[in-house]
Amino acid sequence: MAFHHVAVATNDLDATHRFYTEVMGFTLVKTVASPTGAPGGAWAKHLFYDTGAGGLIAFWDLHDERLGDFDPAISTGLGLPEWVNHIAFDAPSLEDLERRCRRWQEHGITVIELDHGWCRSIYATDPNGILVEFCCTTADFTAEDRTEAEALLQSAQPALESLPEPVFHDAVGADAVR
Q1: 33 vs 9, 40, 64, 157, CA distance in Å?
Q2: Which of 30, 60, 73, 115 is 20 to 30 A removed from 7 (C-alpha atoms)?
Q3: Domain count, the chain
Q4: Per the domain annotation, does 161 fall within a domain?
């Protein structure tokens, strides 16, 4: 079953909107503004962006004094490394992945690419400190893969794989970010 949407909070709506429309290439398709139910007129906007693959990503723009200042980063905001909690979008082909890499570079982002053996991914960080990924599956899953997955799930001390060697694709332009 596919996801309908994933929703996260933002504390910089303008930067988030620019990133997801201009850099990611997604389209804003729906915004809902409603009260949060808190006293004092608290309210929120819930913005939905079409990811182009039949799914949506949504952002909460919260206006509720009960919340105070918050860190919207879904990993570092919890004290975890940035790569732990992240959002991965499908790149249906290696050509699509390369196109998206170039788009990020043209928007001033140095892109990290990893070949995991069964998929290839590119990574960037959004204005909320959330790691986003485009991932292309490059191998079919086999019965052997499923058997190995079950064995690793049950293993108290699994055999560890080597980390993939990162490839850096430098940003293009004066606004380069690395």
Answers
A1: 14, 16, 13, 49
A2: 115
A3: 2
A4: yes
Mean pLDDT, 10 residues at a time, the chain of 178 residues: 92 98 98 92 96 94 91 96 97 98 97 98 97 98 97 95 96 66
CATH code at 30?
3.10.180.10
- The tokens for 81 are 């490394």
Residue range of the domain that includes 122: 76-169
- What pTM does this model have? 0.92
- Asked if residue 158 is part of any domain, the answer here is yes
Q: What share of the chain is helix, strand, coil (3-state, %, to 5)?
A: 20, 35, 45
Type of residue at 64:
D
| Pairing assessment for the beta strands 56-63 and 43-50 based on DSSP bridges | antiparallel
- Burial (CB < 10 A; 0-12, 13-18, 19+), residue 103, is middle
For 128, the token pair is 């909320």
Kindly provide the b/e burial profile for residues 108-141, where b requires at least 16 CB atoms within 10 angstroms of the residue's own CB: ebebbbbeeeebbbbbbbbbbebbbbbbbeeeee
My answer on whether 108 and 137 are in the same domain is yes
